[in-house]
Amino acid sequence: MLGVWKMDIAFLSANEIASRIRSKEFSCREILEHYLERIDRFNPELNAIVVDLREEGLETADRLDELVQKGEFLGPLHGVPMTVKESYNVAGTPTTFGKPELKDNRTDSDADSVRKLRAAGVNIFGKTNVPLDLADFQSYNDIYGTTNNPYSLDRIPGGSSGGSAAALAAGLTGLETGSDIGGSIRNPAHFCGVFGHKPTFDLLWRKGHSPVPENVGFGDISVIGPLARSAQDLDTSIRVVAGPDEIMSRGYKLDLPEWKGRSLSELSVGVWKTDDMAPVTKETQARVERVAEAFREEGASIDMEARPNIDVSHSHEVYGRLLQPTMSSRMPEEQYERLRKQVDALDPDDQSVGAQTMRAQVSSFKDFASANELRHRIRWEWHEFFKRYDVLLTPTMPTPAFKHDHGKFGERRILVDNDERSYFEGVFWAGLSGVAYLPSTIVPTGLNAEGLPIGVQIIGPEYSDLVTVGIAMELERKGFKFEEPSAFAS
Question: Does the first or last residue of the chain, that is N or C, have fewer Cβ atoms within 10 Å of its Cβ?
């Protein structure tokens, strides 16, 4: 059965795979074996999948096939081979966050989200690479090595869900799930030409996305969410994983606004194509404009000057004041104490970006609480903005994928139309929605002249996740879709 589809089956969407398993066009074992053959052929040069669970996966595939023969299906993703980001707990596997000191840190239970995905029928057969402590736009570490971009192996795939996006784009897996605090779902989706969704804060419960399985409380801003080759797969994944935890479910139930029945013609769309704080290349701006034009062609109202009533430099400062202490809370105690001593030794007059970042990393609870209050004021301004506009289009990152650079953070630079800019400037576009808990969907817009993908971010109001994803589905039908990397297309 598989031979009929052998040339393109690896790049089917997860929903298409599940549909063809249901119709018995191929079996759960056949589709998994096809991915495994491609992994053996392509993963050595890509290094996207770093934990191999093929034996467990093959056993699971056989059990899922037995259910198919009985006419029984676990859920909408029955039989779909899936990899997950290394930072998720999967029973019997290491969860290291790329930290060498945790290389033997094996967990004996699944993350809540992994459990829900399995219940929906996915077959998890591997884990994908991350940067050290999930804290980079690149995905490399001393345990697993460097992941490459399938559109150009000398370039980055993004981070921290870089292995996730690279595996999807190369046709090595059917579905993925990542996490995002500073664009870690969104920039890999952009760099690798796939769809990605950063959900509304805490919409998808994060228990088990931690190197410490016992942790049940989670840091600010950070979310988990899906990556896929189709926007419909994002929708399915969100519906499977979203919802309150056991305690909250006593009094809350999920009731998200739906896109179904709506039209692009009724939308009011804001467009923010670049900013002096984080300028993007002209070709990136042109892609934002291209998506805006697609809305305009459908009759939507377009406003190129639409902005919430916030000072963007203030918003970005607040984001940093919340982001940095959240990230530093992951540090081992010894490393944190060394950082405190370095901060104590700083010149009080040193207001450089590096010094401000270090101070934020060891800030007091009072400082954090003050920033949190400012954040909630920003949230309310966004709430008012979305009374006038349905969504906002923005860039995802300043440039397409750039070449690997493993130099010191403070010395890294990127070129934006030949203008040398700070390496971490791109986090501005992630922080814009991240600080205010807003959902953001990344839509691929095709390849540039160098064959590199460019994605555009669709930001919506809190809990409009199925709406921004629904809009992405409409755009996909209009041609904004995943394109296979030529080197991995056979």
Answer: N
Question: In the chain, what is the greatest distance between 2 CA atoms, to the nearest angstrom?
Answer: 72
pLDDT band, very low/low/confident/very high, at 2 (cuts 50, 70, 90): low
Beta strands in 245-299 (DSSP E): 268-271
Token digits of residue 301: 């109202």
Closest-CA residue to 458 (of 478, 424, 487, 429):
429
DSSP labels, 369-408: HHHHHHHHHHHHHHHHHHHH-SEEEEESSSSS--B---S-
**Tokens, residue 470:** 């629904």
**What is the C-alpha to C-alpha distance for residues 292 and 362, in angstroms, rounded to an integer?**
41
Packing angle of the helix pair 28-46, 54-69 (nearest 10 deg): 160
Q: Is the pLDDT of residue 46 over 90?
A: yes
Q: Which pLDDT score is estimated for 327?
A: 86
Burial class (CB in 10 A: 0-12, 13-18, 19+), 486: exposed
Whole-number pLDDT of residue 217: 65
Query: Do the beta carbons of residue 343 and residue 359 sit within 8 Å?
Result: yes
CB neighbour burial string for 410-432, b if at least 16 within 10 angstroms, e if fewer: eebebebeeeebebbbbbbbbbb
135 CB-side CA count, 13 A? 16
For the chain, count helices (H), then strands (E): 14, 15
Is 27 an active-site residue? no
Indicate which residue of 13, 27, 85, 464 is catalytic.
Answer: 85
Catalytic residue among 27, 113, 139, 160: 160
pTM flag (> 0.85): yes
Contact 308, 385 (CB under 8 A): yes
Better-predicted residue by pLDDT, 312 or 490: 312
Amino acid code (one letter) for 357: T
Whether 273 is catalytic is no
Mean pLDDT calculated for residue range 413-428: 96
Indicate if the pLDDT at residue 37 is higher than 50. Answer: yes
| The pLDDT of residue 4 | 46
Task: Give percent of the chain above pLDDT 70.
Answer: 98
Catalytic residue, from 184, 210, 222, 433: name it: 184
Asked if the model's pLDDT at residue 156 lies above 90, the reply is yes
Tell me the C-alpha distance between 60 and 178, whole Å. Answer: 22
Rounded Cα–Cα distance for residues 112 and 196 (Å): 20
Specify burial of residue 356 (Cβ count, 10 A radius: 0-12, 13-18, 19+): middle
Q: What is the pLDDT of residues 167-216, one digit of tens each?
A: 999 999 999 999 999 999 999 999 999 999 999 999 999 999 999 877 76
